[in-house]
Structure formats: structure tokens, C-alpha cells
Amino acid sequence: MKDIREWFPQAEVTDQPNPPAGFVAIPLQAQQWLQLKEEELTEREKHLIAWLASEEDLTPNPWYQYLIDGKGEAPQVIKKMQLVYCHLSHSTAEGIASWLEMMQTLLPNFRATLQLSGQDYVLILDQEQSLTVADILKDTVSAMEYDFNIRLSIMVGQVWTESKDGKVSSVIRAEWAAFRAWIREGHQGVYRFSQLYLWGIEQADLDLHPIKERLHQLIGSQDQLQDIIVALWDNGAVVTKAAQQLYLHRNSLQYKMDKWEELTGLQLKNLTDLALCYHLVLQDVI
Predict the structure, then answer these.
(1) Strands 189-192 and 151-160, how do they pair?
(2) How far apart are the two ends of the chain, measured CA to CA in Å?
């Protein structure tokens, strides 16, 4: 898409498929269109655009259908899926291509890319073998920005599995909405989802209930996890003290914490992740 925008630098990307009078629209992807002034086009360009419109593939990206629209099946089976949401600014087509290639090398569990707009990309990861993605990206983001002449805002989402009562699309849409609201504030760098969640619960126009409900259900399904979260919160995430409060062996507590991290990506020794989990169980312990 960036290539097309370079051909028509005055064009505008929009989510409206029907252009106003005097404009034509080129279909892109993920519900995006490029609007161009008709008077600025040559006859050859007009014919080419008309042909593109007539040949438009009416079948959306299958990952978009599955993750955003909640339709169909996943193009490939990923039992534990994690999305990395990336907003690129001050970028070129060459820089984006090189960056995407680097990300695939950097993250061995990379499976697919979904482009949501000219500046927004989602990396789809398989977390069957757990990888600390946020730590890897924090260590490398500055070098990538310098090497590829781009500016990055990145949110590492939760690890999700299909639930018995529905697909992952509702929680993915909520993650995406939180990230869009976050980047509108001008933030750059690498962030864990827990940071955006704690910020987002104070934003009146954000609906994070799908995520809250799903994680609350998961907490309830794990043995002693609610008590563990409260004990860790009471003891400043000091595992030894929390274990004493719970009358658990430290290794047993650590095992349960590791199991939760593998399931969701949330690290209970991380105070921000712990704060998210404590917020989820607060209604049950007051």
C-alpha cells in the first residue's frame, strides 16, 4: 500500500468506499480505500483504476475475517495466539519491508502479518513455546528505528486461546481499540497490554469488557489463582512472603505463576501485570 501512496502522494487514505464527487477510490485492504482527485489523473490512470475496481477481490483477508470480523476459521491452527500491534510513522516502503523482514527473523514464532492501515500492522505469533516478546522488542526497538529510519509504537497483546463459548475476535477488537486510542495520545516505544489496560479503564470511550470477562473466567479456572494474586499484591510481588501467607512451598507458588504466564502472557512478578490481575479479582475479594 505504501508503494501506491508514493505514486499518488496527494491521495488520502479513507475508510469510506464511496468517494465524493470529483474523486475516485482505489480499494486497498482491511476496509481501506485511497481517494484521488479525478482531475489530476491521466486518461490511462483513469482506465487502470476502473479496471482495478472491476477486478477487486471481494473476499477479505482471511486473518481479518477471523480476528476482526469473527467469521470463518483461522487460516492456520494456532493454539496459543499472541498479537503484536505496531504503528509506524515517518516510514518509507523500503523501510517497512526491511523492518518486517527483521521482525520475522527476530521472532521465531512469527506466523503471519495483517495490515490494518497504511501505518498499522499486526504480527501474529504462535506462543505454544512461550517467548518473552516484550523483552525482546524493548531491547531492539531503538536499533530498528535507527536502521530502518522509522518510528515505532508497539503493544504486545495477551496470549489467547479459543474459548468454548466463542472466537477470539471480541478480545482482539478490544485490544486493537485500546492500541488505537493509545497511539492517538502520541505514545512511542514498546508496551505490554497491561499498561494500556490500566490506562484504558479510565477512558470513557473504550470498551474493555470482553477482555475483562475472558481473563476473569480464566482466573477462576486456575487452582488457587485468585488467592495467589491477592497474596502477591499484599506482599509487593515478593514470592517468598506470598508463599508464606498462602502456606505454600515457594516452588509450588512459582509453578502456578509460571503456568499462568504460559496461558496468558501475564507475569505476576511484574507489578503492572499484577495490578491488572488484582483489578480483575477486586470485585470478588472486597
Answers:
(1) parallel
(2) 51
Identify the pLDDT of residue 167: 77
- Gap between the Cα atoms of 206 and 185, Å rounded: 14
Amino acid identity, position 250: R
Q: What is the spatial distance between Cα 65 and Cα 45, in angstroms, rounded to a whole number?
A: 31
* Domain residue ranges of the chain, discontinuous segments joined by +: 2-54, 78-204, 222-285
Residue 58, pLDDT score: 42
Tally Cβ neighbours within 10 Å of residue 182.
Answer: 21
Strand, helix or coil for residue 28 = coil
CATH no., domain 78-204: 3.30.70.270
The whole-angstrom separation of Cα 85 and Cα 73 is: 21
> CA-CA distance, 27 to 49, in Å (whole number)?
9
**Range scoring the smallest mean pLDDT among 16-25, 33-42, 219-228:** 16-25
Query: Cα–Cα–Cα angle for 49, 50, 54, nearest 5°?
Result: 115
DSSP letter (8 states) at residue 39? G
A 10 A CB-CB count for 156 gives 27
**pTM recorded for the entire structure:** 0.79
- 129: buried, middle or exposed (CB in 10 Å: 19+, 13-18, 0-12)? exposed
Q: What's the Cα-to-Cα distance from 200 to each of 145, 210, 220, 251, 255, rounded to whole Å?
A: 27, 13, 23, 34, 30
Q: How far apart are CA 176 and CA 182, in angstroms?
A: 10
Q: 191: which strand partners?
A: 155
The H or E element that residue 157 is part of is strand 151-160
Collect all residues with Cβ–Cβ distance below 8 Å to 122 and sequence separation of at least 6.
67, 83, 84, 85, 86, 113, 114, 115, 116, 176
